[in-house]
């Protein structure tokens, strides 16, 4: 298959380029394609003539987005919509990546695809608007909500905790935010499977299970340094985050797609034998 990957310089984008290597993959990083440029989007889709467009581009700085709402909406909503429009016009299928931060976090159990989105932050609202624009321009697009991504490329929570642990403990980590940590490798492989099937629509795709940021940090440092629980209020981050955004991939499994491994085993595989990352 010929696949156009946007946001190809990001943590998921780079992973997709590797995992999908058996296909004809055309990766475009931010410099190669700014998805907020509607004409450039149309031109690239016409040039590449992909059978799939996978949008891994996003404005992802959740805290800065509170003050950069225009840019967040331009990339996460309008840009996603331009890609969906161009893909639909070219007869290409589409995968668009969204987030657990579309939820308000007040549900006491994992969120399914049937739960109502009600984002708390500018980032969350921009991503939810992106879902709506993609679905409207390309009704058969696959919209995948994922969560707490980490992997080999780019910045992420796992790397930040490993680095902080090297400097020495104790580390103070938020204990009242629960989510589903997900290894980009597993997400990219899941996307590789999805595009070979007729499954379309909205899916939650994350490593199985859930934990708090505090529990996640403890699993990352494996007892090498002390981790102390703090509250989200103590952490005082600019953007509000859902207290619970654990994802239930019910619809993914109902479509016959393989569930992703549990977050604990994904993290162990990612960290490797020495527990410090491959
Ligand atoms: N990271 C997470 O924990 C997480 C959680 C849930 C969902 N997601 C979603 O998962 C997807 C992948 O995230 P990620 O962690 O791989 O993010 P990432 O590492 O920040 O990658 C996103 C890429 O998009 C690029 N980009 C930004 N603005 C662009 C534009 N206007 N046109 C084209 N490219 C642009 C960025 O390039 P520059 O850096 O050069 O601007 C970056 O390389 C996103 O949709 C994100 O919302 C992420």
General description of the model:
By secondary structure, the chain is an alpha/beta fold. It has one domain: 3-Layer(aba) Sandwich (Rossmann fold), CATH 3.40.50. The strands form four sheets. Strands 2-1-3-4-5-10 form a six-stranded parallel beta sheet, with helices on both faces. Strands 6-9 form a two-stranded parallel ribbon. Strands 7-12 form a two-stranded parallel ribbon. β4, α4 and β5 form a beta-alpha-beta unit. The structure holds NADP nicotinamide-adenine-dinucleotide phosphate. NADP nicotinamide-adenine-dinucleotide phosphate binds next to α1, α3 and β4.
Strand content: 15-25%
In CATH, what is the homologous superfamily?
NAD(P)-binding Rossmann-like Domain
**What is the domain total for the residues?**
1
Could you say what the CATH architecture is?
Answer: 3-Layer(aba) Sandwich
The total beta strand count reads 12
Average residue pLDDT: 96
For the largest sheet, list the strands in their spatial order: 2-1-3-4-5-10
SS summary, helix count: 10
Over all CA atoms, what is the radius of gyration?
Answer: 18 Å
Quick one: biggest sheet? 6 strands, parallel
- The top level CATH class name: Alpha Beta
Specify the helix fraction band.
25-40%
């Amino acid at each position: 298959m010929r696949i156009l990957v946007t946001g190809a310089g990001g943590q998921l984008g780079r992973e997709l380029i590797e995992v999908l290597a058996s296909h004809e993959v055309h990766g475009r990083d931010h410099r190669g394609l700014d998805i907020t440029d509607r004409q450039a989007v149309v031109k690239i889709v016409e040039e590449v003539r992909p059978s799939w467009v996978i949008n891994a581009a996003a404005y992802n700085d959740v805290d800065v987005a509170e003050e950069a709402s225009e840019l967040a909406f331009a990339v996460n909503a309008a840009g996603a919509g331009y890609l969906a429009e161009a893909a639909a016009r070219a007869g290409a299928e589409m995968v668009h990546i969204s987030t657990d931060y579309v939820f308000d976090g007040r549900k006491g159990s994992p969120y399914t695809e049937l739960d109502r989105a009600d984002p708390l932050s500018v980032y969350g609202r921009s991503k939810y608007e992106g879902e709506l624009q993609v679905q409207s321009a390309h009704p058969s697009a696959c919209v995948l909500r994922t969560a707490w991504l980490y992997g080999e490329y780019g910045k992420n929570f796992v790397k930040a905790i490993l680095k902080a642990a090297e400097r020495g403990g104790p580390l103070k980590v938020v204990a009242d935010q629960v989510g589903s940590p997900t290894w980009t490798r597993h997400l990219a492989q899941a996307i590789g499977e999805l595009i070979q099937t007729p499954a379309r629509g909205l899916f939650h795709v994350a490593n199985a299970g859930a934990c708090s940021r505090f529990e996640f940090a403890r699993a990352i440092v494996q007892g090498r340094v002390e981790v102390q629980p703090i509250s989200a209020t103590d952490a005082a981050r600019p953007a509000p985050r859902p207290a619970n955004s654990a994802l239930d991939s019910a619809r993914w499994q109902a479509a016959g797609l393989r569930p992703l491994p549990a977050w604990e085993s994904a993290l162990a595989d990612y960290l490797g034998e020495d527990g410090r990352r491959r």
